Amino acid sequence: MTARPLGAQISHMLKDRGVDVTFGIPGVHNQEM
Predict the structure, then answer these.
(1) Residues whose CB falls within 8 Å of the CB of residue 20, separated by 6 or more in sequence, listed in order
(2) How far is residue 27's CA from residue 17's CA, in Å, rounded to a whole number?
(3) Which of 4, 7, 12, 28 has the least CB density, counted as fewest CB within 10 Å?
(4) How far apart are CA 12 and CA 10, in angstroms?
(5) Residue 11's pLDDT is what?
(6) Residues 33 and 14 sit within 8 Å (Cβ to Cβ)
(7) Cβ count within 10 A of residue 12
(8) What Å distances lie between residue 20 and 1, 2, 3, 28, CA to CA?
């Protein structure tokens, strides 16, 4: 089993909890929800 990067884990956790929109620095925080 391959571990996902922390950013991917966080975005999946947020999506699972119903979060649709997050804000970050364009070009730096490019993790797809």
Answers:
(1) 33
(2) 25
(3) 28
(4) 5
(5) 84
(6) yes
(7) 13
(8) 27, 26, 24, 19
Residue bearing tokens 């975005």: 11
Q: Tell if the pTM clears 0.85, that is, is over it.
A: no
Q: Which two tokens stand for residue 10?
A: 């966080």
Q: 21 or 30: whose pLDDT is higher?
A: 21
Alpha-carbon separation of residue 30 from 8, 19, 22 (angstroms): 10, 16, 11
Q: Can you tell me which residue has the tokens 């797809």?
A: 32
Query: How far is residue 21's CA from residue 2's CA, in Å, rounded to a whole number?
Result: 27
